[in-house]
Amino acid sequence: MDWVNPETGESMSIPRKPGAVRRGSPLFAEMVINAPKSLSVAAALHPDVSDALDVAQRDAAREIQRFLGLHSVTLAGPRGAQEVLPVEHMQTVAITHKTSRAGDPHRHVHFQIGTRVWAGGKWRALTTAALFQQQGAIRALGTAVIAAHLQLAATLSEHGLTLDPVSGEVVELEPFNAVMSKRSAQIRRNLERMEAEWETAHPGETPGPTLSARMQHVASA
User: Fold this and answer.
1) What is the DSSP string of 28-94?
2) Cβ-based neighbours of 144, under 8 Å, separated by 6 or more
3) Phi (first) and psi of residue 114, to 5 degrees
4) DSSP assignment, residue 26?
5) What's the farthest any 2 CA atoms get from each other in the chain?
6) What are the backbone dihedrals phi and psi of residue 132, each rounded to the nearest 5 degrees, phi first?
7) Spatial CA neighbour of 163 closest among 47, 43, 39, 61
8) Chain-centre distance of CA 105, in angstroms?
9) With contact defined as beta carbons under 8 Å apart, do 113 and 90 qualify?
């Protein structure tokens, strides 16, 4: 976050501070890679499943790092005549949490990506617009690695539990997802309240997909 190369100590530029006209420089980008609720519950029940899930999440983080290394880009040249350059060096951090903010079992990884990258002989700004467009693929990759993780599946099997290789859910525990998630119930209540308020203000209308997605985001926040 201080834009100092941790390997050499050199400065990778100075972040621009927010002003009256321009926003400040983003210090890093972040996305969350969630584990299915039933898998989080299984990990809370069995320490060896928790250890195996730690390994699976680390493997997922490595695959995401590999994906970013292959597909991240930056821009070089004057505005209006910029060329796209592949990133040659970048920095990421993966931080694992075991509970939700409500205290429920909820294994997830905060995957943070530094916004200074090395390309074309100098430190440059990561093209975050391209990164945001890749969010769906990145999250799907993390989910797929965990769902297909052989060590995790074998450890669950020792407790009579089955890992669904498509969804990553634990088949026997999936029916308990709703009762183990105070946060999802809170989000649902928020969303129902917002939808009722909107329908009162717009009788006879139906919210479109953009507005629905916006309400879902606010309800979650």
Assistant:
1) EEEEEEEPPHHHHHHHHH-HHHHHHHHHHHHHHHHHHHHHHHHH-EEEESSTTS-EEEE-SB--EEE
2) none
3) -65, 145
4) P
5) 62
6) -65, -35
7) 39
8) 17
9) yes
Only one residue has tokens 């320490």, namely 47
pLDDT at res. 21: 67
Residues of the chain above pLDDT 70, percent: 98
In three-state secondary structure terms, 123 is: strand
Q: Which of 112, 4, 98, 8 is nearest to 45 (CA)?
A: 98
- As to burial, measured by CB atoms within 10 angstroms (0-12 exposed, 13-18 middle, 19+ buried), residue 36 is buried
Structure tokens at 140: 């799907």
| Lowest-confidence segment of 94-98, 130-134, 180-184 by average pLDDT | 180-184
Tokens 């088949």 belong to residue:
171
The token duo for 24 is: 């400040």
Residue 22 CB contacts under 8 Å (≥ 6 apart), including other chains: 16
Q: Amino acid identity of 203?
A: P
Average pLDDT over residues 66-77: 93
